[in-house]
Structures are given as C-alpha cells and as structure tokens.
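Structure, all two chains, one model.
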Amino acid sequence: MAVYYITFTNWSTFLNALLRQHSVYGLFEDNANLFCQKLTAQNISNITVNRYRAVQPVKSLLFPVKEEVTHAPSLRPNVLIGAKACDLGHLLTTDAIFSGRVSGAGSAGAGGFHRQGIEDPYYRIRRGNTILISADCDDLRPSCFCTLMEGSPYPLKGFDMNLSPTRSGFLAETGSEPGEALVRAHTKLFQEPRPEHLEERRQCRENMTRRLQENNRRFNWSNPKKIIENGGPAKTWEQDIAGTCVECDACRFTCGTCYCFLLGETVRKWDRIRTWDSCQSVGYGRVAGGANPRRTRGERLRNLYTCKLQYRPDNFGVYACTGCGRCIDVCQGKIDIRESLQKLYDEQAAVRAPK
Amino acid sequence: MFKSPYSSIPARLEKIIEETPTIKTFVLRPDQPFSFATGQFIELAIPGVGEAPFTPSSSPYATETIDVTIMRAGKLTGMLHDLRGGETLGIRGPYGNGYQLEKYHGKDILIVGGGVGMAPLRSFLLSLLAQKDKFGKITLCYGSRAPEDVVYKYLFPEWSKIKGLEMLRSVDKCPVGNWDETVGLVTCLLDKVHLDLKRTVAVVCGPPVMMKFGTLKLLDMGLKPSEIYLSMEGNMSCGLGKCGHCQIGPYFVCKDGPVFSYDQLKGIPNPFI
C-alpha cells in the first residue's frame, strides 16, 4: 500500500468527516490512562492518537463482554482510532480462534491432529465492519514489553491505516483496500510525504524501541516458548509465581488475546448469551461430579502461561501475548509475567549450570 | 436465513429408561433430521436452564430418535433426572471427531468401559456390529461399581449370542452370591484378554481414574500409544473450539477430540482429570 502525509488541520477535518459516516471510537486520557470511548462532536478535540495502548483491549469492540448469540448480528460499521502494535498483534489470535482456522506450523508438528473449526458469525461480522486506524507509540508505560515478545512499538501490518506522528501532522500509511478507500474519499486532505517526514518517523520508531529496551533492561530472558516448555517445579508455580494471586480474574478480562467465554441461557427460552470467562477461576474447567483438571492457582496460572506462550503458538504460529502489559497493570497481587518468566529462566539456568 | 451455531433445535423427550439408581437413558426425538457419527457428542439443553455435553449411546444408524445415557452428577443432570417425559429439550451438534471407524478396519477391537462411560461405547459397539465383517474379533471389558450399577442390563443377553463378540464384566465390589462374573477393577479383566498386539486397537471410556490406569495397563500389555483411543470428554461448552473450557494442552477437546489416541496426549501435564 502507500504512505501519505496529513497535517493536523486536515486530520481534524478528516476526523469530523469520519464521524459523520461511522461510529468512531478513539482514545481519551484520564489520569495517565487512555480509555477507548465513542467519539462525539463534543469530545472530538480531546482525542489522543499516539501515546500508548488503551486500558481496554481492542477485542471489546469485536467480542463484547456480553452478547446475545442467537439472532443475526447487526452490521454497524465502526472505526477504531489509536490501536497500537500490541493490540493489532492480539487480533491474530482472536481472528484465528473465531474463524476456526488452523494455521500454525505447530499444528502440523503436533501430527496434524488439530481440526478445522466452525466460524463464529458474530465476531466475523464485527471484525469485517471495523476499520482499524492504528498508531505508533510515542510514549510507554512501565508495564510495556512488546520488544521482549518479538514485537515493536509501531505496527507493520494488520491495520487499515497507521498513523505516525510528526511535528506538524501524521504520516498515514495504508495497509488495506478499505484504508486506501478512506484516502481516496478525502484526496484533498492527504499529500505526498516529504523525505524529512519519513526520517522523523524512522527516528521516533528507533527512539521508542530503545526506550522500551531500556524499560525492560532488568529482564534477560528470551524465547518465552522454550522457557514454558522447560517448565519448572510445582512449588515455583504455586508459591513464587501464583502465590499472591487473589483470583480476581482482572488479568483475563484485560487480556487482548483471551477469547474464552461462558455460554448461557437467558430467561427468553431458546436464546443464548455469552460473557467473557476466565480460566483463573476455580470452576472454569470443573465438570459435573466435581472433578477439576486445575484445582490450584499455580496449576491454573501455569496453564495460562502455557496457553499464551506454547499452545497458541503451536496452533496459530504466533504468541498469544504481545507484551501490552495490561495484566501487569491490573494485578492486585503484583504478578508480573516478565518477572515470572525471569524466575523460571533463572531456575532453569541454575539447573543447567555446572555445580 | 441466519442460523446461529449456538442455537439449539427442539427435541421431544419421548421416553426415559431407568438403567440404574443414578443413570437414566433419555430417548429424544428431534423435530428436524439430526444425524451424528458414533463418538461425536451433542449439547443437550433444558431451555432457559442450561446445557451440557453428552455423547449419544444409540446407533448412528437409527436416525429417528437419539438415546442419551446420563448419570445424575450435577445441577443440570439432576434436573434431567427429575423430568417425566414429554418435555421439549434442545439439542445442537453433533460436535467433535467421533470414532474414526475406518481406522479400525481389519483390526481386533478391545473395548474398555467403566460406569456410565459405557454410553458412547454402546453406540460404538452398535456401529461395529452393523458392519461386523469389516473388523476382527471384538472384546468388551466393562466394569461397574456394583451389580446394581450395570447399565444396559437388558442388552447383554442379546449381545452374548453374537459370534465374534466376547464380553467380560466386572464389579468393583459386591456381597457374595450377587454376581457370578469377575469381582475387581476393570483392569483385572484385561488380564483375561489375549491380544494379538499386531492387530489390536483399544477403545477406552470411563471415569478419569479408570482411563488413566486402563491406559497404563494397556501400555504395559504392549499396546502402542497410537493404538489406544481415549474419550477425553471434559467441560465442553460451545462445542466449536472457541469458548475454551474443554482445553487440554494444545487441543480443544470439542473440536480436536473428544476421541484422542494416547500418543496425541503425550507432553500434556496430567491429561486425565
């Protein structure tokens, strides 16, 4: 696709034009947190495009906390502005799950046992009707660690349009036909980028990557899949990693790749609803009669890390963790996945080291 | 017209057969054609209350009605057991891979069942018997807790007349005189079976502890992990490989199973609940 330049003045015109035709969601700052909210004529001037990721995961727009799943889904076109690279990375997992696709190299490695699933029409329709205008990060939170997860603070794919900030406007890179169509519909607002704009983008990206590496300097692990595959003794999981878990499930509900849901009946017989569910609650895997595959917090957290860093990469070829750090920010027990991996990594290194 | 994959179709509860004090077979008549392959499961709902996964116990060749054999184990199964018959329930599916019968062609088949785990195995056995010439010797080892817990009591006399089908039954414990077959765990029946290892596949379904020790015993007897097929039914909820509840290791039991060969499960910590 192509790279354009749009001045801040033209951006404002563009935004107003979008608002006339679509339901537009953007990020708004409150006390150093960015919240994803619907854009209105009143709040439009307060929108934040860059900075860092929002508190809510992007999946909330595509896979709502609670939704009715019996009748035909509605076809409302949405535009989301300000998704970050980590957010777009999350969609690789939710797309794969809800489409029923089996794609990872590992699915063949596991002997080709993984079967194709059925597509979820509710997710598909919302996803197909959402235009993603993503943006580079030009700031970070202490919990950010995309660079440890083989990612970057700027997206290279998965967007319809991506915005990189410059002093006087944005570089707008299109990544899909719907993104191009937006430019075509407003050709007067977009210009050819000048070399200094591209240079500005390069510097900003380099600078942010450095800041992220600096932010995570105390962690020296890499290849999280290997760390999880090597595992660790139950005691490490129960005490050192999950010991402070209070089973509030907040980490699951802020995770951008968590797709699990609870299917339930409604008072209107024959209607079903689904709500987000969390594998960290004790009843999650329990079956009738009381048998439970994961009774302890350590077993559940271990299964969670394995899901994100081993099983889903095996299934879909991507980590179901992009280093957005939401689970770290919300944890009441101060459990930090970076530190958990560091503990396992150090233990494994100690075992390997000659005595 | 839009059809949600999460919607059920109505099925009339035509008859209830009391198998044991805790197990009943529910005969359902779906109001639309509904077919399944043996070993696939359905989600059975009491509309407005909830739903749960069950593997039909009837032959897939009988398409008018579907039998589901259910043990009273929790809230929903308790409510099902309290039904009188005539009610309208909801079903959706079928889901999962089921038993891939063509993989067993030409083989001797050892069926190992425990308790209400006999339900999907009855459907499996009926499918084998419907095309018996395609398979070698069939051996059924079935263990129950006590004589009164034996399901399908009325079918065993009929099955015992079938040539090429050997049946061994055990009960875990019982007062003297109430049972003239084996007393002990189902694994001790396996000691009485003579296997031609080169041509035998084992199909196992039962409570987790029985699946675990049954599998270990079969491995001990020399069966290859790839020749041991296990019904790994868990907490399947959506049935479509999405909601996550039934995941074991990298698999969604509802989509990738519920039937797994044991070699598929290696590397998964504690696959048996």
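The first helix of chain B runs from residue 75 to 81.
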